TrEMBL record:
<dbReference type="GO" id="GO:0000287">
    <property type="term" value="F:magnesium ion binding"/>
</dbReference>
<dbReference type="InterPro" id="IPR037143">
    <property type="entry name" value="4-PPantetheinyl_Trfase_dom_sf"/>
</dbReference>
<dbReference type="InterPro" id="IPR008278">
    <property type="entry name" value="4-PPantetheinyl_Trfase_dom"/>
</dbReference>
<dbReference type="Pfam" id="PF01648">
    <property type="entry name" value="ACPS"/>
</dbReference>
<dbReference type="GO" id="GO:0008897">
    <property type="term" value="F:holo-[acyl-carrier-protein] synthase activity"/>
</dbReference>
<keyword id="KW-0808">Transferase</keyword>
<protein>
    <submittedName>
        <fullName>Phosphopantetheinyl transferase</fullName>
    </submittedName>
</protein>
<feature type="domain" description="4'-phosphopantetheinyl transferase">
    <location>
        <begin position="106"/>
        <end position="171"/>
    </location>
</feature>
Length: 209
């Protein structure tokens, strides 16, 4: 997937980075706590992914002229700006990292490679109605998986099940904005619009407002 930095609105931006391309970039911009967290990651690949995601969020913030505040995780694993202003979501996968920031609204982002096996995993993250309209298409399944992960990250709380609580309305490969919602939980009737971008075998999804 092409690397990019995109201003979605004056309040929101996203960035996609090639992890290898940014592997030599400095990390001076990180907060003290983040530098410690980074130093504690022992797995080399995980370390590069973690760094790539922070470089992505730095680029997104630069794009809307906001300073890098440093980010901390809550008890669910979701990152929040240390200055308390705005919302962030991060994703990283083999070779790529992406981040989205919104000054006022929660956001979620997810990157995935299309894999045949995602169809077999369908019963774990889809209900019967969703499995019916997705058929056996691995691309549609990957989009559905990714969109649900983006919604999950946007709401941020553990205990929300992709299969039982996150619903996705029927869509085709032509649809670039999907309708999703959370149901049967204390966050019921939260509605989400999820943007879909595809390049080759990579699917990027993120929540929009
Ligand atoms: C937490 C989760 C969303 C991470 O997704 P992933 O595909 O493994 O990894 P990604 O690279 O896309 O995202 C990783 C980032 O998610 C973020 N994250 C972790 N927990 C989060 C949460 N509760 N809310 C929002 N974001 C979260 C972190 O920033 C993390 O990056 P970091 O470790 O560098 O800070 C995922 O593991 C998960 O729990 N999914 C839903 C649960 C589920 O139902 N799964 C099984 C269905 S079969």
């Amino acid at each position: 997937m092409q690397t990019k930095i995109e201003k979605i609105s004056p309040l929101s931006a996203l960035a996609i980075k090639n992890i290898l391309e940014v592997s030599q970039n400095g990390t001076d911009f990180l907060s003290f706590r983040e530098k410690l967290a980074f130093a504690n990651i022992s797995h080399p690949e995980k370390k590069l992914e973690w760094k790539g995601a922070r470089i992505a969020i730095k680029s997104a913030l630069d794009c809307i002229s906001l300073p890098y505040p440093g980010f901390v995780k809550d008890e669910h694993g979701k990152s929040f700006p240390m200055d308390g202003y705005g919302f962030v979501s991060l994703t990283h996968t083999k070779g790529l990292a992406a981040a989205i920031f919104h000054k006022e609204m929660p956001v979620g982002i997810d990157l995935d490679y299309v894999r045949e096996k995602v169809v077999r995993l369908g019963p774990k993250f889809l209900n019967d109605f969703e499995m019916d309209f997705l058929g056996k298409d691995p691309v549609l399944h990957t989009i559905a998986w990714s969109a649900k992960e983006s919604v999950f990250k946007c709401q941020g709380k553990k205990g929300i099940s992709l299969k039982n609580n996150i619903r996705i309305s029927p869509f085709t490969l032509e649809d670039k904005i999907l309708d999703c919602k959370i149901e049967h939980s204390e966050y019921s009737d939260h509605f989400y619009k999820v943007k879909v971008e595809m390049e080759g075998d990579i699917v990027l999804t993120y929540t929009i407002w």
